[in-house]
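[step 3/7] fold_predict: job queued, chain A
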Amino acid sequence: MSFKDHFSTQADAYSRFRPRYPASLFEWLAAQAPARERAWDSATGNGQAALDLARHFRSVIATDASARQIAHAPDAVGVDYAVCRSESSPLATASVDVVFVAQALHWFDLDAFHEEVRRVCRAGALLAVCSYGLFRIAPAIDEVVDYFYADTLGSYWPPERRLVENGYRDLPFPFETVGHPGFSMMRTWHLGDLIGYLGSWSAVARYRARENRDPLPDAAAALADVWGDPVREREIRWPLHLRVGRVATEPAGTAKDERGGS
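[step 4/7] structure written:
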C-alpha cells in the first residue's frame, strides 16, 4: 500500500489553522497509561498532538511519512521527529506507553500498523485513535459550510473520507476496548481564521489542481453574508470520535522483535 500524500501541498496552512486537541484528552491518556516514559504520535502532521503529549510523557517520538509536514513542525523539548511510515517506525521494541493517531488512521495499512503497534508497545500500553468531522458554529453558518463540504467539494474528497465521517467505526480495532469520557475541540475564531482553515482541506487543494480555479472565494463570500462583522469572534466546536484500546503484546523472539531504534 503506497503512501497517499494529500497534505504536503498545503502544509503551511495545515500548520497555521488546524485546531488543537483538548488538554483534557492528553491528561486522561496519561492517567490510563502503564507509565509516562514514551508516547508515539503516529502520523503527526505538523506536530500538534506531539506538543501536548510532551507535557505528560518524558519523551515523544512524532513520525510522519511527509517530510514537508515534519518541516513545519515546531521544535519542542522532549519531542523527536522522524520521517517514516507508521507501519514501520524507528522505535525500539516494547518502548512505548501510548500510541496516538489523530485524523490519519484511514490512510494506514491497518494489518501492518497493528503489528507495529504490538511490537513497539509495552504490556498494557494504549492505542488511541481519534477523528473529527465537520465543526458546528451556528445554523446559518453551518448550512453554508455543509454545502461547501458536500456539494462544492463532494467529489474531490478521497473515498477514505467516509471512514472519518463514521468515526472509524467501520475499521477493525483488534484491541481490548477502554471506555473514555467525551471530548471536543474548541476554538474561538474570526471569519478570516475560518476561511484559512477551510483552505487547509485536502479537497480544496484537489479542486484547485483539477479545475484550475479556487473554490474558496465563493464560499468566503457566502460565509461573509451570514457571519456579520468579519472581526467578530465566534466559538467553533468539533466533536471528537475516539477509540481507545489496551495493547496485549505478542511474545518476544521473532525477527521483528529484535529491531532496535530510538
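[step 5/7] annotate
The domain at 8-134+159-184+239-258 is CATH 3.40.50.150 (Rossmann fold).
The CA atoms of residues 46 and 72 lie 6 Å apart.
exit 0
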